[in-house]
Amino acid sequence: MMIDDGDRNSGTPNDAPLPSRPHQIRAEHLGKLAIPYLRQSTMDQVQNNVGSTYDQRDLADLPRKWGWPESRIREIDNDLGITGTSSLQRAGFQELLRLIDAGEVGLILAQDVSRISRNTFDSELFLKKVVRGGVLLYVHGQLFDTATESLVNLFGLKIQSLLAWLENEQRALRFKAAKLAKIKRGFAVSRPPIGYVKTTRGKWIMDPDAAVQEAIRRIFDLYFRLRSTRKVEAYFHEHRLLFPSRSRGELSWKTITGLDVIRILKNPMYTGDYVYRRTREVRSDNAHHE
To answer: Which end of the chain is more exposed for a tag (fewer CB within 10 A), N or C?
Structure first.
C-alpha cells in the first residue's frame, strides 16, 4: 500500500477528508502525536552523510499533509550518531517507547525498520507495543495500520527487522575479518597508547617528543623504586610534573591521576609487542520489563 505524495493541502481542517490522506488514518490517530524517528549509526555518518538526515527530517511533511497540526508533530532525533544494535544508550528510542505506553502516539514515521533497531529483541518489543497501542507505522514508504493490518503484512515487518539484524551482523563479521587480516600482515588497528604515535603505514613508533618519552619512562622508574602507584602519583604532584595526553594528534599536558599510572603499568603494549584482543567481551540481552 504505497503512499502517494500528492498535493500538500495542509490548510484543510483536521476533521475534513483530505484527498491525499490515507484511509487508515482516523480521528483517534489525528488526536495523538505523529512522531518522525531519526537515527544514524555514527557521528561520522551524521557529519558526512547529511543527505540521509535531511531525508529523514522530510518525513515530518507527511503528517502535515495528512492533517496533523504542527503542535502534535514531535520529531525525535536524540539518537543521531548512535548505533541501533542496542537500545540501552538510545534516549530517543526509550522516549518513543514511553510515549507509546502512555497512549500518546498515533503515528510513527521512520525511513526503514533498521532506523528503529538492528536488534531483534528491541524490534520485537517495538512491534509488540505499536500493535497493542494501535499505532500507525510508516516505514519503507508504506503506511501500516498495526491494529487492523493483515498477519501477512505484520509478518513482513518482522522479516524486515530480521534482515536488518542479519545485514548488521554480516557487516560486523567482515569488519573483524579485515582487522585480523591487517594484524597478520603486521599493521596496528587500535589506537597507540601515550608514548607512541601511529605512522601512515599503520605502524607505531615512539613519540618523537622527548618530554613525552621521559614522562613515560619516569613512571616505570619510579614504580620499580617506590613499589606503589600512590607514591608514583604523589611524586608527580609533589614535583609538579605533568602527564602527556594526545587527542587527534594534538599534545597536551595534565595533572596525573592514579588511574593514569595503573593504565601505563598494566598495558602490555609497553613491552614492545603489539597486543590485540587480549580481553573477551561477553554480550547479554537487554533487560526490558513491562
So the answer is: C
Q: Tell me the C-alpha distance between 194 and 176, whole Å.
A: 25
Quick one: cell of 178?
579485515
Contact of 154 with 78, CB cutoff 8 Å: no
Say how far apart CA 121 and CA 288 lie, in whole Å. Answer: 9
Alpha carbon distance 114, 84 (integer Å): 7
Tell me, what DSSP letter sits at residue 73?
B
The predicted model scores a pTM of: 0.52
Residues 6+ apart with CB under 8 A from 121: 285, 286, 288
In 3D, which of 95, 88, 111 has the Cα closest to residue 160?
111
The pLDDT tens digits for 152-193 are 567 667 767 666 666 766 776 776 676 566 556 556 556 677
Q: What is the amino acid identity at position 215?
A: A
What whole-number distance in Å separates Cα of residue 278 and Cα of residue 271?
14
11, 85 in Cβ contact below 8 A?
no
pLDDT in tens, 128-139: 899 899 999 999
Q: How many other CB atoms are there within 10 angstroms of residue 118's CB atom? A: 24
Block residue for cell numbers 505484520 = 154
Q: Specify the amino acid at residue 67.
A: G
Distance CA 84, CA 118 (A): 5
- Continuous H helices in the chain: 27-30, 43-48, 50-57, 61-66, 91-101, 113-116, 120-133, 151-184, 210-226, 229-238, 258-266
CB 129 within 8 A of CB 97: yes
CB atoms near residue 114 (< 10 Å): 21
Q: Per-domain residue ranges for the chain?
A: 27-169, 196-271
Q: Kindly indicate whether the domain formed by 27-169 is annotated with CATH number 3.40.50.1390.
A: yes
